[in-house]
Design brief:
108 residues; mainly alpha
Length: 108
């Protein structure tokens, strides 16, 4: 998840609207927050933790990196650089976590 930031010209602070969607889901379902590791990253690229996990081509946020042994949904992506599976659409992330942890999900 991206931390809020100010642009180089001093404008802002800003937040990522897609990260806000996931934050909203976690506010509705606080029990999920303790079940997933949430790592805040800075807006400026490169984003070293994302590059390490998913390669330089996949630095978008929000992103859910899926662990070994996880049942992979059909919409999952795979990093060409690292072979790691991930999801990078806010609503897909919320739907996946809602199904996985049996909590409310976004209305279709």
């Amino acid at each position: 998840m991206l931390n809020p930031w100010k642009d180089a010209d001093g404008q802002g602070p800003f937040y990522c609207p897609d990260c806000g969607v996931v934050e909203g889901f976690l506010a509705y379902c606080p029990e999920v927050r303790g079940l997933v590791e949430i790592i805040p990253v800075e807006y400026q690229r490169p984003r070293p933790l994302l590059v390490e996990a998913l390669g330089v081509e996949n630095q978008g946020s929000p992103v859910l990196v899926l662990g070994e042994g996880c049942d992979l949904p059909k919409i999952v992506k795979k990093s060409f650089s690292t072979g790691q599976y991930f999801m990078d659409d806010a609503l897909d992330i919320c739907n996946f976590l809602g199904k996985l942890f049996h909590t409310p999900r976004p209305h279709p």
